[in-house]
Structure formats: structure tokens, C-alpha cells
Design brief:
The protein is an alpha/beta fold and 337 residues long. The protein folds into two domains: 3-125, Rossmann fold (3-Layer(aba) Sandwich); 127-284 and 313-335, Dihydrodipicolinate Reductase, domain 2 (2-Layer Sandwich). 39% of the residues lie in helices and 25% in strands. It is built from eleven helices and 15 strands. The strands form three sheets. The chain has a seven-stranded mixed beta sheet. The chain has a six-stranded parallel beta sheet with strand order 3-2-1-4-5-6, with helices on both faces. Helix 5 (102-115) packs antiparallel against helix 11 and helix 9 packs across helix 11 (308-327). The longest helix has 22 residues, at 279-300. The protein is globular. The model has no long low-confidence stretch (mean pLDDT 96).
Length: 337
């Protein structure tokens, strides 16, 4: 049986996932798009050869022939859309983060469990070949016992002021750090027990007007005693900079590079190379693989690769790290989760 999937949200990320639903997931049919901005839905439908569009996602959810939906709406609307989709009996893929608070995560999870549908959350880095290989090396014992996690997550642009508001995105640490918090748990094989954050509005003073910052560092302590550090920034003017290092008792792993193509230009006074411009450049294959993994889990009636509990744990770290920033103290995960 061919699965029919609808997309809720036709913005920048919706367009990214829509492309892969249309052209990278052969085992499913991309059937409909819903977005309150009709022109955005119509434009994406034309690019992806999708027959039906809606300005009200509830009309799409009412269709009996749609088996699952991908939720790519603003972060602060995830829970309400997930609850509606679950109530309609649809399996759910949702972009990260699942929600902006642990309580809201629990509300979404409860709705999904009550409806008996499956849900997967979009931590696409787990599907990137370099991160997949790193996880395999760790599990094989290639670097001994992981003892330190270090991650860099830097965007080459400032987000919009509307998106930067905490009530919309959760703020810098939640929006950008959430991927690294998920990777930290996954790669280190241990839960985070406490966090300590420092940050500031150092480059874009206008972000302070909406309660956000542009640079932050978050120190992590894991339950097994290992340690970690995540830095996030909105002013990497040189390119999209995503790198991770795992230091083990018998070696280390370094994941990621600024360089897009394997070309160095060497002249008398300079050595130069290109850089990765954005998440589409860096994680195109990962987006395709995560959508395939979601569809395969539905077809094979098994658990999804990234669970709602994984998403809840990452949100809890983000909430604790943001509280640490606000209160200027170390925050234990037990305080928020």
C-alpha cells in the first residue's frame, strides 16, 4: 500500500521537506499542502507537482486518504497542530523542536499516545552520513569511552526579529542549540544532568529589543560524569558552520568542515576555499534520509528512529540552558524535567 502524506507549512523549511517528499521518497505519495498563505502553498505545490492545497490544515486532516502529515509550522504552533493531526488519526513527522516547554512536549506526546499513531521529530543530523559513521565508530569502541562533547553551531545571518522572540522560537539557545543537545545525548550515550550558560547580544543590538541574544556558550555535565560544550552564534559571516568533536579515552572524532568543495585556491599571498552557505547545502542528504526513515517506519509498523522522548529530552536541556542564562547559575535537569 502506498502511503499518502500531506505537508502542513509551506515556508522555508516546509519547502525543503516538501522537495524531499516529492523527489526523494519513492515509497510515498506527496498528496496535499496546507498553509494559511495560499500563494506560498500554490507555489510549492507547483514545484513539487502536488495536486491539492488548503489554507486550513483541518480541511486536509479531514481527508481519509491521507495517512500521515509533516508538520513544519512555526514552533509555537507545533502542539496544537500535532494534537489535531493525532485526533484525525494521522501519523506525524514534526520539525524540531517538538515544543518550547517540557509540559507542552508532554501534552503532544499524550495526544499521540492516546490516538495510537506514530510520531517522529526532525533531528536530521542523526541521518547525515558523517554523524551516522561517527555513531558507529563510538559504538564499536574506536575511540574508547567518550569523555568530552564539543559542538559548534553558527548561522551566517541574523534571524528575523519576529522569529527571535522567545514566544515564537524559544530564543537562540533553544532554536539553534536543540540539534546539538540531541547529538550530545545520542553520541555520548548519557543523559545531561546539569547545564551552565553564558551569552549576550554582542553584534545585533536590535535582538535585545525582542528579548534575544546572538551568541552563547552552554557547558554540559552528563550523568556518567563526562562533560561537554556547545557554542551557538548568529553572526558567522564566513558561512554556515556546523562542527562536532567527540573526545574519547583512546582517540577523538571530528565531524564537519567549513569547506563545501574539495578545492583550495593557492596564490602568492592567499590560500582560500569556498564555504557552506546554509543548512540545505550541508544537510540535503540528511533531510532526504530522515523522510525515508519516517516512511519506512510507518510501512514496517515499527518505532520511529527519533522518538518523542528524544525530542522531550532535548527540549528539557534547552529550557534548562535558557534558565541558566537568565538566572546566571547552574541549572539541573531535574529542575525542569
Amino acid at each position: 500500500m502506498t502511503l499518502h502524506i500531506g505537508l502542513i507549512g509551506a515556508g522555508r523549511m516546509g519547502a525543503t521537506l516538501g522537495h524531499h517528499l516529492a523527489y526523494s521518497v519513492e515509497m510515498a505519495t506527496f498528496t496535499a499542502i496546507a498553509d494559511p498563505q495560499e500563494e506560498a502553498a500554490r507555489t510549492l505545490a507547483a514545484k513539487c507537482q502536488v495536486p491539492d492545497i488548503y489554507t486550513d490544515y483541518n480541511q486536509m486532516l479531514a481527508r481519509e486518504d491521507i495517512d500521515a502529515v509533516a508538520v513544519v509550522t512555526p514552533t509555537n504552533t507545533h502542539v496544537e497542530v500535532i494534537k489535531a493531526a493525532a485526533a484525525a488519526g494521522k501519523h506525524i513527522f514534526t520539525e524540531k523542536p517538538l515544543a518550547l516547554s517540557v509540559a507542552d512536549c508532554d501534552e503532544a506526546i499524550a495526544a499521540v499516545e492516546a490516538a495510537g499513531v506514530k510520531m517522529m521529530v526532525g533531528f536530521m543530523r542523526r541521518f547525515d552520513p558523517s554523524y551516522v559513521m561517527a555513531k558507529q565508530k563510538i559504538d564499536e569502541g574506536a575511540i574508547g569511552e567518550p569523555v568530552m562533547f564539543k559542538a559548534v553551531g553558527r548561522d551566517p545571518w541574523r534571524t528575523s526579529l519576529e522569529f527571535a522572540k522567545r514566544e515564537n522560537s524559544g530564543g537562540l539557545i533553544a532554536d539553534m542549540g536543540i540539534h546539538d543537545f540531541d547529538l550530545a545525548r545520542w553520541l555520548m550515550g548519557s543523559e545531561v544532568s546539569r547545564v551552565s550558560s553564558e551569552g549576550g547580544c554582542l553584534v545585533f543590538p536590535e535582538l535585545a529589543e525582542v528579548g534575544d541574544i546572538d551568541n552563547a556558550v552552554v557547558n554540559l555535565r552528563f550523568e556518567n560524569g563526562s562533560i561537554g560544550n556547545v557554542d551557538v552564534s548568529r553572526n558567522a559571516i564566513y558561512g554556515y558552520d556546523i562542527r562536532t568533536e567527540i573526545i574519547g579515552s583512546e582517540g577523538s572524532l571530528m565531524i564537519g568542515s567549513l569547506q563545501k568543495t574539495q578545492l583550495l585556491v593557492l596564490t602568492k599571498n592567499n590560500v582560500a576555499h569556498d564555504s557552506i552557505s546554509g543548512f540545505g547545502d550541508r544537510f540535503g542528504e540528511a533531510f532526504a534520509m530522515e523522510m525515508r526513515a519516517f516512511v519506512e517506519a510507518l510501512e514496517e509498523q515499527r518505532d520511529t528512529a527519533v522518538t518523542a522522548e528524544d525530542a522531550r529530552a532535548a527540549t528539557a536541556i534547552a529550557v534548562a540552558a535558557t534558565r541558566s542564562l537568565d538566572e546566571g547559575r547552574t541549572v539541573y535537569l531535574s529542575e525542569v524535567s
